[in-house]
Amino acid sequence: MVQILEANIHAVLVLNKADLDxxxxxxxxxxxxxxxxxxxxxxSIHQPQTILRLRESISEGETIVFVGSSGVxxxxxxxxxCEKSVLLTSDISxxxxxxxxxxxxxxxxxxxxxxxLIDTPGVREFGLTIDNPDSLAxxxxxxxxxxxxxxxxxxxxxxxxxxxxxxxxxGTLDRKVYESYLKLRREAWxxxxxxxxxxxxxxxxxxxxxxxxxxxxxx
Length: 219
Prior knowledge:
mainly alpha, nucleotide-binding, 2 domains, 219 residues, Rossmann fold, flat, two-stranded parallel ribbon, Ribonucleotide Reductase Protein R1, domain 1, RsgA_GTPase_dom, G_CP_dom
């Protein structure tokens, strides 16, 4: 979701299989920082009214893309949205307890009287690749706290006068959101550092090539 927001793509979060037993008020409380930034739908193919609400959110001519882990029911949800069987579906693997890769390629489906729907293969692994790791604070609604830290270069880990840590300790900021922020920031910094090192190597290599060309020209 962070990656999608970073790319300025209109994001919608769909929590599927809502017919299974779960504590909805607790989930909504845990996701309130996300719900402020994108619509959240609880869906189930066994609850037609939830499918209808999601379908009504898709404008005619709009292109939407389904992305998610294997086994979350994307293909079944697509079939329910289209009101006909257009994609193959499969059950959770009994041996591993994980979802099977039902979709092995991208599939585009035209929804009657609605938009264009693209289903993608299930995601097994994903790494965050954003240009500005600091934007994570804003996306996870931590920036209101970071601006109040004693030090401008505060890393929000162990510095005195850190407003983020104070918010976590007081319960104002959800600890799991804070931990997610640190984890995603590490991923983003790793990517940024890697890209920076790549650029340095590319520049060095380009200079080397230029020097070789000059030497050849002067012979």
